[in-house]
Every structure is written in C-alpha cells, then in structure tokens.
Design brief:
The protein is of the alpha/beta class. It folds into 2 domains: 12-221, Spore Coat Polysaccharide Biosynthesis Protein SpsA, Chain A; 228-321, no CATH class. 46% of the residues lie in helices and 17% in strands. It is built from 12 helices and 10 strands. Strands 1, 2, 3, 4, 5, 6, 7, 8, 9 and 10 form a 10-stranded mixed beta sheet that branches. A hairpin with a 2-residue loop joins strand 6 (125-134) and strand 7. The protein is globular. The protein starts with 11 loop residues before the first strand and ends with a helix.
Length: 322
C-alpha cells in the first residue's frame, strides 16, 4: 500500500466509522490493507471514531502496529449518520468506501470497483455482491444481474426493497456532493434511503462477484436498532425523505413500492418482537406503526393492526394480572 501523504491527491478514501470497537476492527483493517495493495495510486485509510467512551482507538491501532492508518476522533457521539457524514467530509479521494468496523473486503475489491468506475464514468455508485458471515455459516446475496456493468431498471429494484450491504458499496465523492450526505434523522433505513436517492440521480454499476463480507452478530448496530422500538417512526421519516427524491408522475410506481416496503418493515418489526416473546416491544412498535402509517394505510390493514394491538394489550394485561 502506498505511503499516505497528508496533502497528496488520492483516488481512494477508505473510511472506517467505529464506536467501541472490538478485535474485529483489526480484521477489518487487515482486509482493507490487503485489498489496497493492488492499487498504484495514493490511498487514504482512516478510522473515524464516534467518541468511544471506553476505548482509545488511536492507542488500540498503535498497539496492533498497523502502519498508514489515520485515526480521527469526533468530539461527541453523533450516531451512525453523523459519523458516516464525518467520513464523507474528511474523505479526500475520488472514490469513497465507508467500511464498517466489523465488515471485510476481498483482496481484489478495490481493483474491481475501480475498474467498474473507469469503464462506466457516468456511474455515481458501484457495488458488488456480499456474503453474510453468521457464526459458523456463510451465505451469499442473490445475483442482481449476471453481466458486469450498469444495472438495468435499478431504480425500480432498489425501491422495492433493500438489496445490498454497506461494505459492498463505493460512491464517487462528486455523487455525495450532488445528492448530499446521509439523513441524520434516520437510523434503521439510513443506508437504503441513500441508495434510493443516488439511484434517482445516477446510473449504478455492478459486479456479480462476491467481494465483500457483511458480519451478522448480536452486538451489531443493526441488531441493536431492531430492539429500539423506533423502526416504524424511522420508516415513516424515510418515506417522507424519499418522496422528495422521487418527485413527479414518472416516479408514482416507485413511491408506491417504497411505501409498501417500509410498511412491511414496520409490520415485520412487530412480528419479530412478538415471535421473540417481547410483547412490550411488539406493542410499542405497533403503536408507532398505527400512529405513523394509520392515515395512509388501507382500511383493511388498519383494522387488522388495530385488532393486533388489542390482542397484545390483552396479553400484557393478562400477564400482569396473573
């Protein structure tokens, strides 16, 4: 990997947002450094610490004797979107990869994604397939299209549901300058909202090669957010944000797909909480669902969810009385 010079122009910025990192961060950095060795240009590899209270990230990285890695510490904790936006603001390169503290990339990730951008200069974003690492099992995402290149009908597909994972995505700095940073009001669907926003403005390039690894574990931020009780509220805020990106009659179908997907997420949060036996969380999510989506929901669905809420309330009350 080329030695980093503070003021030199760089084509790649690999930004690693972190908070209270574990030893998994060491694996993440090792995977990024191995993949960056294939590039001939200067690169920026930088950790952005979201004010971790119990870990001195600079000392931690120093103890691992990993060269060519900068560490920047935010003064206060801001959460996912603020930290990601700090990554974008500090990135000096033409291509920005936000690589989370527990995810990995394959050795040829950066060379392949750079090749996609070179061959498709109008693409505002590029991504690959990901694999999911969960305890002892590994699974792969479905293939979006078998041929490398610009994705066909991508705006329709990304509005239908979340289809990609953060470690697989690289965005041009000029793209972020055009569409803006991550919406700091969002949490659970903050990444998906950005992918929809980019798709509304730019072609997106793709390779079906599996070049990134998304780690699934109970301590991840995604897992934590599933227990926050705020998924319905977050989904409705995302819908209001996405409607601004999909203005006009030509996007009517896409807006409907976004609505159905976000309502599905909200309903799914209730179902998952109830299935796990956390009926208090299920009721909170259902309260949020009815409050946020009730006015837009078809009457049949509203009646169904209202009955569901009464059943949960009865269950909780009965448990307390018993």
């Amino acid at each position: 990997m080329s030695k980093i010079q503070e003021d030199s122009p760089q084509r790649w910025s690999v930004m690693v947002p972190c908070y209270q990192p574990s030893l998994l961060l060491r694996e993440t950095l090792a995977s990024a450094r191995a993949a960056l060795r294939g590039l001939s240009s200067e690169v920026q590899l930088e950790i952005v610490d979201d004010a971790s209270p119990d870990v001195d990230v600079r000392d931690l990285v120093k103890s691992w004797n990993i060269p060519d890695v900068r560490v920047y510490r935010r003064e206060t904790n801001g959460g996912l979107a603020k930290c990601w936006n700090t990554c974008i603001h500090r990135a000096q390169g033409e291509f920005i990869h936000i690589l989370h503290q527990d995810d990995l990339v394959k050795p040829n990730f950066y060379c392949k994604l750079q090749d996609l951008f070179v061959r498709h200069p109008l693409a505002g974003m590029a991504f690959c397939r990901s694999e999911f690492l969960q305890e002892s099992t590994i699974s792969e995402e479905p293939i979006e299209q078998h041929d490398e290149g610009i994705l066909l009908d991508w705006i329709d597909r990304i509005c239908e549901r979340q289809r990609l994972q953060c470690p697989s995505v690289v965005v041009r700095k000029s793209t972020y300058e055009k569409v803006g940073g991550f919406d700091e009001k969002l949490k659970y669907v903050v990444d998906w909202e950005m992918w929809v926003r980019i798709a509304a403005h730019f072609p997106v390039a793709y390779t079906p090669k599996v070049l990134a690894s998304y780690r699934c574990h109970a301590d991840s931020e995604t897992a934590r957010l599933k227990h926050s009780g705020l998924i319905s509220k977050d989904s409705k805020q995302a819908y209001n944000r996405i409607k601004k990106s999909l203005r006009g009659s030509e996007y009517q179908l896409q807006r409907q797909m976004v609505f159905e997907y976000l309502l599905f997420i909200s309903s799914g949060a209730v179902s998952m909480a109830a299935a796990s036996g956390d009926f208090g969380l299920a009721r909170r999510e259902l309260q949020g669902l009815i409050r946020c989506w009730g006015a837009s929901m078809p009457l049949r669905q509203l009646v169904k969810h209202s009955k569901w809420y009464l059943n949960l309330t009865f269950h909780l009350t009965g448990g307390e009385n018993g």
